[in-house]
């Protein structure tokens, strides 16, 4: 079994790395949130299949790890955006 690199994950590549030209920041965030939701749903579905004996534990663990990485990236991005907005709002004119 080969584990693919984070930049090879289709959801991350489409949502974060290659945002369509002319897309706004809100579109990029929405696309990333949709990709995260899809990854979390897939991980939960595989975990349910493992519990039912229909899937193997390795696939479920890999899906969960990918979802966790995407969640961590989203949390860091949200933190940085929040910090940037706070800095802008504290700027005195």
Protein architecture, described:
The protein is 75% helix and 0% strand. The chain is built from three helices and no strands. Helix 1 packs antiparallel against helix 2 (25-52). The radius of gyration is 17 Å and the shape is elongated. It starts with 9 loop residues before the first helix and ends with a helix.
Helix proportion: over 70%
| Beta-strand content estimate | under 5%
Poorly predicted residue ranges: none
Could you spell the SSE succession in H and E letters?
HHH
Could you give the count of β-strands? 0
- Give me the secondary-structure category: mainly alpha
Number of alpha- plus pi-helical segments: 3
Distance between the termini: 57 Å
The whole-number mean of residue pLDDT values reads: 83
Shape: elongated
Biggest sheet architecture: none
In short, what is this structure?
The protein is built from three helices and no strands. It is mostly helical and 93 residues long. It is elongated.
Detail the topology: elements first, then pairings.
Layout lengths: L9 H8 L7 H28 L4 H34 L3
Helix pairs in contact: 1-2, 2-3
